[in-house]
Structures are given as C-alpha cells and as structure tokens.
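Spend some time on the protein that follows and explain the fold to me:
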Amino acid sequence: MTEMIDALKTADVNQITIINFIKEIKSKVNLSELPPGISARKIIEREVINALVKMIDPERQRWEPEKDKLNIVMMVGLQGSGKTTTCTKLGNYYKKRGWKVGLIAADTFRAGAREQLMQNAQHVNIPYYVDFVTED
C-alpha cells in the first residue's frame, strides 16, 4: 500500500484524491474474510483497478468536437510518447470525415519536432503552420 501511495504522490496526485483512493480500496478488501485458496494479491489488484477506473469516471460524457465551430485540441505529454504522430493521425481521421483540419507546431524544444510535424502533415495533405524563426 505504501508503494501505491508513493507512486501517486510522485505522479502529483492530489492528497485528498489519494486518501479517498486508499479508503475505497480498504473498504472493499477485507483480507481476514478471504476463503482459503483465494489469492489476496489478486483481490487487491482487482480492487485497485476498479478504484482507478472509478477515478477516471467512465460514466462521464466524452468530449466531441462540434461541426461548424472552432475546436482546438492541445496535445501534452512526455517526449517520445507519440504526440506529433497522434496529432497527424487525429487530423487525418477528422479530415476524412469532412472536417477542416490544421496542425500547428508548438514544440520549440525538441530538435526536429517542427520538421517532423511538417513532414507528417504534408504526407496526409493537412494544412500546417511551422515557425522556424522563433526559438523560444
């Protein structure tokens, strides 16, 4: 349990969220009442997964872009996680469905990021904006 708490803290999860998460798991798992032959580890793993899914709230309506309205999507993530490629794939997905799509290169830190976005956008014929002058 301590390792889970440390992992959540390291991931900058809100303290109240961590407390509620741990309470949720503890309320569902009573190791003293487990029948013989049942793995305590499997029970704990199942409840951790259930609590994580509940934290994400699958009942919430997902965001849907609106036709004939400006919809802006910003991708944020770790270097090397595939944001540029995902943006191009997402843009191509909506372009094929009749949406007006454009990509803007905003990564000014990673070497080659702007060039990669430009090449990807050209490959699927999506308009793009890349500023090669600004270095901030």
Notes: The longest strand covers residues 103-104. The chain has a mean pLDDT of 86.
